[in-house]
UniProtKB/TrEMBL annotation:
This is Acetolactate synthase small subunit. InterPro entries: Acetalactate_synth_ssu (IPR004789), Acetolactate_synth/TF_NikR_C (IPR027271), Acetolactate_synth_ssu_C (IPR019455), ACT-like_dom_sf (IPR045865), ACT_dom (IPR002912), AHAS_ACT (IPR039557), AHAS_small-like_ACT (IPR054480). The gene is ilvH. CDD domains: ACT_AHAS. Belongs to the acetolactate synthase small subunit family.
Length: 187
C-alpha cells in the first residue's frame, strides 16, 4: 500500500477524524402519514410541528379508507436530515398514527398539486392569459367579461411558474390544495 493510500484510509476511518458526520443543509421532504380518522389527530400532528418550531410548507388531509376510518396526511417540510429524522420518529410516537413514510428518502414519488387562479384583464392581457394557460395545460373553469378562473395541476414548481407569469397580466387571487404524493411503483 502506498503512503497516500494509507493516509487516505487513515483519514476516512480514523478515530481522530473530527469532521462532523451530520449535515446542516436543509432539504425539502414529503412525508405521508396514515392516521386514524378521529377528532384531534390533525391537531396533534400540527402541534408536533408548531411546538418544536418546524415549518410546514404544504399540508393535505383526506380520508382514504372509509371502512377502516383511516386518513392520509401529506406534509411537505424542510429541515436538516437530522431534523427530518426527528420529525419522522416523533410522528411515529403519536398514538393515532399508523404509518409514517418519508417519500423523499424511500425513493421516487409522484407529487401533484391543484391550484385555482383568478386572472383579471381585458384585450391583449386576456389573449396572453389564454395563451399561457394553453401552454401550461390549465383549464378555464369560469369566465366573465373581465376575468378568467383557471384550474391547473402539476408539480409545485409548475404552479409557481404559472403564478409568476400570471402576476403581471392581472393575477387577482390564487388557491392551492397543497401537495398530494404517492411513491412510484407497486409498493
Amino acid at each position: 500500500m502506498s503512503a497516500l493510500n494509507i493516509k487516505q484510509g487513515a483519514t476516512s476511518h480514523s478515530a481522530y477524524n473530527l469532521r462532523p458526520t451530520f449535515s446542516d443543509h436543509e432539504e425539502r421532504h414529503t412525508l405521508a402519514v396514515l392516521v386514524e380518522n378521529e377528532p384531534g389527530v390533525l391537531a396533534r400532528v400540527i402541534g408536533l410541528f408548531s411546538g418544536r418550531g418546524y415549518n410546514i410548507e404544504s399540508l393535505t388531509v383526506a380520508e382514504v379508507d372509509h371502512t377502516g376510518h383511516l386518513s392520509r396526511i401529506t406534509v411537505v417540510t424542510t429541515g436538516t436530515p437530522q431534523t427530518i429524522n426527528q420529525i419522522t420518529a416523533q410522528l411515529g410516537r403519536i398514538i393515532s398514527v399508523r404509518e409514517v413514510h418519508d417519500l423523499t428518502v424511500e425513493g421516487r414519488a409522484v407529487e401533484r398539486e391543484l391550484a385555482l387562479f383568478k386572472v383579471a384583464g381585458k384585450g391583449e392581457d386576456r389573449v396572453e392569459a389564454l395563451r399561457l394557460a394553453d401552454v401550461f395545460r390549465a383549464n378555464v373553469v369560469d369566465s366573465t367579461l373581465d376575468s378568467f378562473t383557471f384550474e391547473i395541476t402539476g408539480t409545485s414548481e409548475k404552479i409557481d411558474a404559472f403564478a409568476d407569469l400570471m402576476r403581471p397580466i392581472g393575477l387577482v387571487e390564487m388557491a392551492r390544495t397543497g401537495v398530494a404524493a404517492l411513491s412510484r411503483g407497486s409498493d
